[in-house]
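Q: Sequence in, structure out?
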Amino acid sequence: MNTTQEHLSISDISDDIVLLKDGGGALVLHVSAVNFGLLSEREQYAIIASFAQMLNSLSFSIQIVIHSKRLNITQYLSLLDKTKQIQTNPLLIQMITNYRQFIQTLVKENEVLDKKFYIIIPLFKLELGLSSSKEVLKQKIKTVLLPRRDQVIKQLSRVGLKATQLTNEKLI
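A: Exactly. Output:
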């Protein structure tokens, strides 16, 4: 019987780096978000220009992944109900009731999503050449990927974004 792992191109995750079955590797950065819609037109233009400049400065490929997940706020609404029940101040009870109605209406009228942004910096087998062992391969991958990671993090900080490398635990 085939398992899911047989269909993945990942052979191992070690030292915060993804090792691929084909002999390549990759590292993954989690990138902070900017609420673009709240920025002025001038600020939006500046971010777009900075991001374009960042992309043009790279001499290697990257992959951008956006993971969107619809939020379930039922637990939050339950928490508000519990808070309202233990409240003794009538003014605060009314404020909690109004706030709960506002949140409920907002979610009904607008889809509320949790978005996570990732940048993957891949390293292809052809870029590495031949390796005698898995340890040598891992060291070659680190030697190439870590400076690339630092460059991407530095360039993203100029755009106003914070990026952190995912650890083994988060990658798994």
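The first helix runs from residue 4 to 7.
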